[in-house]
Each structure stands twice: as C-alpha cells, then as structure tokens.
Amino acid sequence: MTSSTAIIHVEGRRTRVRVDGDRANPPVLLLHGIGRSLEDWAPQFSRLSGSHRLISMDLPGSGFSQRSESPTSLPVLARGVLATLDELGEQRALHVIGNSLGGAVAQQLLTLASDRVASLVLVNSAGFGKEVALPLRLMSTPLLGRFLTSHTTPTTARVAERLGYADPSLATPLRVDHAMAIARQPGTGKVVWETAQALATLRGVRPEWRKSLIERVAAEGKPTLVVWGDRDRVLPARHLVEARRLFPHAATHLFAGTGHMPQIERPDEFASQVLEFLATVDRASQPRKSRRSRRQPADA
Length: 300
Description:
The protein is α/β, with parallel strands linked by helices. It has twelve helices and ten strands. Strand 5, helix 3 (about 100-110) and strand 6 form a beta-alpha-beta unit.
C-alpha cells in the first residue's frame, strides 16, 4: 500500500493531491469544504485505504492549489476535479465522498460526468436547505464579504475552526495554524468570497442552484449515503430530513454529539458507515463483471 502527497500541474494550474492505497482497488475521491483542504480527510486515510484507492485534492483555489481563471462556481470546481483525475490517469467510476461544499461539488460532478461516479457519500452536504451559519452568509455580501475573506486573523481562524466541531478541543493550535497558512495563499480570500456569492446570500443558501442540482442528481438514482452530525452549527441536522425526502433511494445516518465534520470527530464510526456502504455498492457491481468474465470463453 502506498501514499503520497504531491504538487501536479492541471491545465497549467498548480494542484495539490494525495493518493493512498493500492491502485488495483476501487477508487474513492474525497472532496473538502469551503476554504478547507485535503487535511480534513486525514483521519480517514489509513481507515479507508486498506480496501480502496483514495484520491484527495485541494480544490481549485483552496488549500495549496491555484485557482481557475474563471470565477469560482460549482461547475468550475467540478470541472477542475475532472481535469485533475484525468491528469492522475484515473478514468474509472469513483465512489465520491464530499463534505459540506464538497458534497455539492460531488453532486455537480455526477451531473457533468455520470459515468465517472459509482456512488455518492454526502457528509453534512450543502444543497438540502437554505439555513447556513451567519459567518458564511456574511461572506456572500459584496463589501463586508470581500473584507472578511481577505482579512483572516488568528482569532477569526480559531472561531471558524471551532464552528466545525461539537467538541471545541478539536480546534487545535495546529489546525488553526494550518487555516492561517491556507488564508495566506494568494487568491484564497477571493475564491472563498466568489464561492459564497455563487451559493448564498445574506438570507441563506440560494434556492436556484439547489433545486436544479438536487433534481438532476435524484433522477440519476446512483447509490447514495447521506450522513450528518446532530450538532452541526454550519448546516443544521434538520437538512438530513430534507435529504431523506429528496433522495428516497439513499441510505442515511445521524452521528450523535457531532458537528460539521464527522470524518474528524467520529473517525471510527464514520469509517465503519462508509466502508459498509462501499462494500455493498462494490458487491452489487461484481456479479455483472463475473458474468461477463464467464461469457468470454464461450463468446471467443
């Protein structure tokens, strides 16, 4: 089993990626939230890579990846993901796991390239309601939003980090320092502001993109798992109720005493839920492959 973090160039953009696990295993793609980085998946690297090839990346303009030339939007982010997969030579259908904004990007990816998505795991995902934390609504405003996203301080980074967890002790100095390092990257603030503007207003998450995206994803009917933390202060847990209504085909799970990032706060329980779901999807696809293999000698 191998693991490596590297800087590659995707359509001329510096892009940071990490690959874990055996290339022969079914591939899993991990997508982080707004203004975040692939480190949000760190507790899952060892837990998921034993049975799957994990690909994680800093989205365009996030973490330590350069931004796209186009204004940031869900389609721009999803196309950046597809281009990165192409550069890595991964053309197989992937299990796509997305947290927060990453969940919306995962769904957008499905609408752009359905054949490259085997399943979805949506983790406290954007798209299932208009309610969102006040700081993110403020970031969407023209003047105040531009100021807030371009003037991150250790204090505001600490507050933002604590917002993600039910357990405030998880907002460690190391995680706050990492958030500050991201904030200091050229263009990070503008990308966060563009993303917030594209997806939300001061009143909440925009309904236009939510309705269109959810309808298209529901029509695809891909295997889906939706999970949430019951103490999420960014996107409230009642969005899981709406997700069950909109995606009646989906499996769901609610983590107790957990905030916006259960993959960090409940790493073992999260991995258990995800691995069970992935195994079910992988088993469902195996008989078709086996039947094709058995037919080959006769066809030949």
